Amino acid sequence: MSTWKTIFDELPLDGQEVWVRLISVYGELALATYDSFNQSFLLSTTNLTFPAYQVSRWKFYQSAPDADAVAFIEACQFQANSVMSARNKSAVFSLVSNLKGIGTLNGTNFWDIVDKDISYLLPYIPINNTTATVATFKINLFKPTNFKTFTAFVAGDFNVNGLTGGTAKFVNTGVAYSSFPQDNQCFAAFSRTALTGARALFGAVRTTAPLGSVYLAPRTSSNTVAGSCATAATSSFVNTNSVGFFAVNRSNSANFNIVRNTDINNFAVASVPCHNFNIYLHANNLNNTSVADVSAHQITTQIGLNVGLTNNQILDLRECVVNYNTILARNI
Fold first, then answer.
1. In CATH, what number does 5-60 get?
2. Residue 39 contacts by C-beta under 8 Å, 6 or more apart in sequence?
């Protein structure tokens, strides 16, 4: 059992999540993240910051900060040459904790079931509450030494709320679609802004054999969400809202899912072999020679997993992303 420690006799490590007792609130416990640079605590429940001198005592919530979260934060700080803000560190610790099955409805441990050399999760984390650049947006949470390539984006596209695409702009994951198992894969993105038309949140489509492609447009001009997942053509269902969590998912050879927030639709379409073109984000890599269906959506998170998910696991993945965006006050 962790024992209470007196402030300034001993302090937590930077980014460590701990229990605190505030001097001004008698008897109330609060979970908070310590920021050593500013000597302050960020409360997880309210996002309020308190200087260390307003805390009477603290004790460990966990034995030590999560090493995977720390590795990602340190990579971001190195690339940005700046210290990450306490709130944003808290968001990273929360996201990693949720991805490990802690605090989500069904407790899915994504961290242990994905191949981190193939899978990616780009949380588009700003270094602080006002500054966002490619330096931190390019970093893969699953493997912080793995950077993605951004083409044609400009400074104004990087925002604390996410990344905005546009004409000729795309992110090359550097991962061939054929790297993902034909019958086990899931791709997702959180779209924060509304648009219509053939605008892909992500895609890699080939119109000659092998035809197995991945693609997702949240709201086409005919008011449908259209997607493919190891299929030769897209499937769709009626949708008039392009804001929220969207995914395509396949966990067997017989059918796949298109997801819009908590609405999981199943399509009985058999899988076909996947081509070897790289997956693009914010656009569709069409036939490996052109960038099509470029999306001007503002996107907060991009995900590609080399495992197919159950319905409950899909809902957990959405919960991870929503919780993360909420801590960052992205007003989703």
1. 2.30.30
2. 11, 51, 52
Its pTM stands at 0.85
3-class DSSP state of 24: coil
Of 48-57, 132-141, 254-263, give the lowest mean pLDDT range. 48-57
Eight-class DSSP state of 20: E
Q: Give the span between the Cα atoms of 46 and 327, in whole angstroms.
A: 9
Q: What is the mean pLDDT of the chain?
A: 94
**In whole angstroms, what is the distance from residue 21 CA to residue 284 CA?**
51
N- to C-terminal Cα separation, the chain = 38
- Of 224, 216, 153, which is closest to residue 189 (Cα–Cα)? 216
What DSSP assignment string belongs to 233-289?
Answer: S-EEEE-----EEEEEEESSSS-EEEEETTEEEEE------B--PEEEESSEEETTT
> Is a pLDDT exceeding 80 seen at residue 27?
no
Tell me, what's the pLDDT at 2?
64
Neighbouring residues of 73: CB distance < 8 A, sequence distance ≥ 6: 15, 84, 89, 92
Distance CA 148, CA 140 (A): 8
Q: What does the pLDDT average to over 276-301? A: 96
Q: Indicate the residue type of 211.
A: L
198-233 confidence digits (pLDDT tens):
899 999 999 999 999 999 999 999 999 999 999 999
Structure tokens at 6: 């007196």
d(CA 150, CA 283): 12
Structure tokens at 297: 């959506």
| CA–CA dist 40, 268 (Å, integer) | 53
Closest CA to 118 of 167, 51, 79, 173: 173
Fold of 68-327: Jelly Rolls (2.60.120)
Per domain, the residue ranges of the chain are 5-60, 68-327
